[in-house]
Amino acid sequence: MAAQRGGTFRSLNNANYRVWAAGALVSNIGTWMQRTAQDWLVLTILTDHNATALGIMTALQFFPQLLLLPLTGFAADRIDRRKLLMATQGAIGLLALGLGLLTVTGQVQLWHAYGFALLLGCTTAFDGPVRQAFVSEMVGDDELPNAVAINSTSFNSARMIGPAIAGLSIAVIGTGWVFIINALSFIPVLWSLLAINEARLFKTDKPLAKSGLWEAFPYVWQQKRILFTLLMLFLMGSVGLNFPIFISTMSTLVFHGDASQYGLMTSMLAIGTISGALLAARRDKPRPALLLAGSLAFTLTMVLAALSPNEVVFCVLLVLIGLAAQTFIITANSSIQLATQPQMRGRVMAIFMAISLGGMPLGGPFVGWVVDHFGARWGLVVGACGGLAASLAALCYWLWFHHKAPSEKRSDSVS
């Protein structure tokens, strides 16, 4: 079962992971179709280009990552991950179907969109940590960095394909049918979970019954590299990774485009994220210096994007933004998982997911407010400030690490 060493796609030699990746790709395309249609629904149908409303919906969708944190990480470490994934993926599909039926029948209102965003956030709060931890259960630690990168490649390939399909579908069949198509896309991923051979999974010992999420916080506090990586993720993610707001408002308010242009711009971002994921897949292990490089490149490209004279330049810069952001995110994800004991991985990844996604509710409404009052370009500048803050945090860690005692360095070393 051991995967062949070397090669960008080496983790796909694992039969379980190959089955999972195939089902997840179809579902990811449907998910990105829905995200595009959902943003378009709120921004152009349910409101008159109200970026604050879009920011509120983003907050409702991701706030449960923080609110439910005591439960989600514990569930990821205590409940059978395969069965839990089947439950969460099925529930997400049903939510897509419900919103689709409301939209197709013409009954959807803004509060409906808010409600479904909140329910989706509650479900994905459980889905995210277990999905991240389940990757190591399928491939083991040796191929974990490669599998994380392949996961990201699949997700961002879908980000390139899904919005483009969604833009055309919205124009031809309407927004509601895009949601229904997404609901159907969960059938392959549920099938893949049923087809996985449990005997070939890399099972880890479950934590003691008394062990809960709160043990993860002192654990993270003692592992300074994990702590600073999470801090960087929060600083950059809370305001810098609000791509639905940035792209939709630049497309509609600055370049006066339609749904097809919005889908194309989202796909251009995905070209960059796919490139970043493929480059990460070629690396044997994550390099901490890439966190700083990624955040600095993100800051620069976001500023340049804010100054874009036309949509062509903006699209080119979106590719570079995606490359920088994905380099940062994959490096952070792999570094944290490899630095965490297997018995703690679900809970630590719950904190990772809560910060990476739950930080958006804190920054999303603010970014939307900035766009409404100062324009879409200033929203990008605020996002660039998040990348700059993350870069400064990386520099602070580097200075601290290189000035402490050798014994402390050894205790803080990371695989």
Report on the structure:
- With 415 residues, the chain is mainly alpha-helical.
- Helix content is 79%, strand content 0%.
- It is built from 19 helices and no strands.
- It has helices at residues 15-46, 51-62, 64-67, 69-78, 81-104, 110-139, 144-172, 175-184, 186-195, 216-222, 224-240, 243-254, 259-281, 289-306, 311-339, 345-358, 360-374, 376-401, 406-411.
- Helix 1 runs antiparallel to helix 9 (186-195), helix 2 runs antiparallel to helix 17 (360-374) and helix 6 packs antiparallel against helix 16.
- The longest helix is centred in the first third of the chain and has 32 residues, at 15-46.
- The chain is globular, with a radius of gyration of 20 Å.
- The model has no long low-confidence stretch (mean pLDDT 82).
Q: Keywords, please?
A:
415 residues; single chain; 0% strand; mainly alpha
Architecture blueprint of SSEs:
Blueprint: H1 15-46, H2 51-62, H3 64-67, H4 69-78, H5 81-104, H6 110-139, H7 144-172, H8 175-184, H9 186-195, H10 216-222, H11 224-240, H12 243-254, H13 259-281, H14 289-306, H15 311-339, H16 345-358, H17 360-374, H18 376-401, H19 406-411
Helix pairs in contact: 1-6, 1-7, 1-8, 1-9, 2-6, 2-17, 4-6, 4-16, 5-6, 5-8, 5-9, 6-16, 7-8, 7-13, 7-15, 11-15, 11-16, 11-17, 11-18, 12-13, 12-18, 13-15, 14-15, 14-18, 17-18
Shape: globular
Distance between the termini: 23 Å
Sketch the topology as an H/E string, one letter per element: HHHHHHHHHHHHHHHHHHH
% residues in beta strands: under 5%
Q: Structural class per helix/strand content?
A: mainly alpha
Largest sheet: none
Q: How many distinct helices?
A: 19
Helix content: over 70%
Low-confidence region ranges? none
Beta strand count: 0
Q: Over all CA atoms, what is the radius of gyration? A: 20 Å
Overall pLDDT score:
82
